[in-house]
Amino acid sequence: MKVLGIGVDIVENKRINSLIKNDKFIKRVFSKNEIISSKKIIKKVSFFAKRFAAKESLAKALGTGFRNNLNFKDIEILNSNLGQPYFLKNKKINSLIKKRFKINKFDLFLSISDEKGYSIAFTILQN
Predict the structure, then answer these.
(1) In this structure, what are the phi and psi dihedrals at residue 104, rounded to the nearest 5 degrees?
(2) Structure confidence by residue, pLDDT tens digits, 106-122
(3) What domains are defined for the chain?
(4) Of all helices (H) and strands (E), which one includes residue 110?
(5) Is residue 85 exposed (0-12), middle (13-18) or buried (19+ Cβ within 10 Å)?
(6) H or E element, residue 93
(7) Of 22, 103, 104, 125, whose CB neighbour count within 10 A is largest?
(8) H or E element: which one contains 27?
(9) Cα(60)–Cα(102) distance, rounded to whole angstroms?
């Protein structure tokens, strides 16, 4: 297996706390499934901050950032039954990675965490 890209992002939770007060921000950045999942979570700032950082870290692992028609809502973070976060490999993400790296098979690894005032995400793209 070869590492094609890594990305890391850190977010100040205070910044996300201000942004999520605006419903337009939430709808522009987070998927329908992420918004539904957030309703079950008590610590909403932490929930949204970690996902925001994860989306940024994937854009960095791709080496493109948010361009070439890649938007925040295109990247969706879900959790396994055990709570492990993962990226949903949707049609757009699959197509973008296959085109950019000229590959057919790949894995995405995600680790997210938060502590006091910050949330962080680390992504590895591998084939």
Answers:
(1) -110, -25
(2) 999 999 999 989 999 99
(3) 3-126 (3.90.470.20)
(4) strand 107-115
(5) middle
(6) helix 91-101
(7) 125
(8) helix 23-29
(9) 18
